[in-house]
Amino acid sequence: MATKAELETKLRNEILEVIMNALAEHYDLDKEKQIEFVESGVITIPVIDAEANDKWPTIKVAIPRGTRNGNGSYTPYDGHAAAVAYKEEIETKAQERALKRAMKAADKGKKKKDTKEEEEE
Fold first, then answer.
1. How far apart are CA 12 and CA 24, in angstroms?
2. Domain identity same for 1 and 57
3. How far is it, in rounded angstroms, from Cα 41 to Cα 62?
4. Could you report the per-residue pLDDT of 37-80, keeping only the tens digit for each?
5. Whole-structure pTM over 0.85, yes or no?
6. What are the φ and ψ backbone dihedral angles of 101, each rounded to 5 degrees?
């Protein structure tokens, strides 16, 4: 009888195989010849750019388990929650950049105004 860890590894490998087949079909590739593992969970696909140079983009496939609780169990990974958090992080950073640009522009405007006032005196 397989242990829980062995079963989980087998299931992860099956999912990886499904993903590799989907990628091969999507990119119309011969999976056996053109998709290669370069490290655990990372595959590479050969492509040729506009100048006939070989390029090897890599795709990392990870199946997160979740976070450990410290007592041997873990909280399962929630991909939807991670996507929402990532979107919020991107929006927050964009707002911070916009605020910095606005403050910088206001600061430049203030310096120009101060310079004009000094010239008038």
1. 18
2. yes
3. 6
4. 788 778 888 888 999 999 988 888 888 888 888 887 778 889 99
5. no
6. -65, -40
* Domain count along the chain: 2
Taking residue 114's Cβ as centre, other Cβ atoms within 10 Å add up to: 10
Paired residues of 75 in beta bridges: 67
Closest CA to 16 of 48, 58, 61, 56: 61
**Contact between residue 42 and residue 61 where contact means Cβ atoms under 8 Å apart:** yes
* 25, 33 contact by CB (below 8 A): no
| CA within 13 Å, CB half, 27 | 17
| Full domain range(s) for residue 104 | 79-121
Residue 43's CB is within 10 A of a number of other CB atoms, namely 20
Instruction: Map residue 50 onto helix, strand or coil.
Output: coil
> What tokens were used for 54?
């070989």
* Span 16-44, pLDDT tens digits: 888 877 877 787 766 666 777 788 778 88
